[in-house]
Amino acid sequence: MADMQFHRGRLIDHIQLVVADYKASRRFYEAVLGVLNIPILAGEGYFFADEFCVSSGTPPTGRAHIAFQAPDPATVDAFHAAGLAAGGRDNGAPGPRTYHPGYYAAFLLDPAGNNIEAVYHGPARRSAEAVVIEAA
Q1: Over 45-96, what HEC string results?
Q2: CA distance 37 to 92
Q3: Parts of the chain with a pLDDT under 70
Q4: Separation CA 94–CA 106 (nearest Å)
Q5: Can you tell me the distance from the alpha carbon of 123 to that of 118, in angstroms, rounded to the nearest whole number?
Q6: Do the beta carbons of residue 116 and residue 110 sit within 8 Å?
Q7: Reading across the β-sheet that carries 89-96, which strands appear in turn?
């Protein structure tokens, strides 16, 4: 993995999930994103967390797989515990995966059945914590 370089913040503008049970989804995402220290901005029937949006409505989106970055394995563990406590279902306990050396992840099914992951890729140097975009 030392030869690899990853770029974040240049491919996805946003991801939106439309859910049937907004309150259950909001409770779940407030718990797991809180552990990841990602704030939520909410309005009537929707919330945003950076490029991720969840809203109420019909028809609900199909099942998706979304992976959130975690700063360390302990945060992956806390993400899994918080998600279970907030109504998520286990879809893969925290632990190492064989995807590449250092990959440590946990998987949950959110209240709408989406496969939600927290992943730590191992020690790495970031060029920046995040890209900040300010509307003109």
Answers
A1: CEEEECCEEEEECCCCCCCCEEEEECCCHHHHHHHHHHHHHCCCEEEEEEEE
A2: 22
A3: 1-10
A4: 4
A5: 15
A6: yes
A7: 65-69, 115-120, 104-109, 89-96
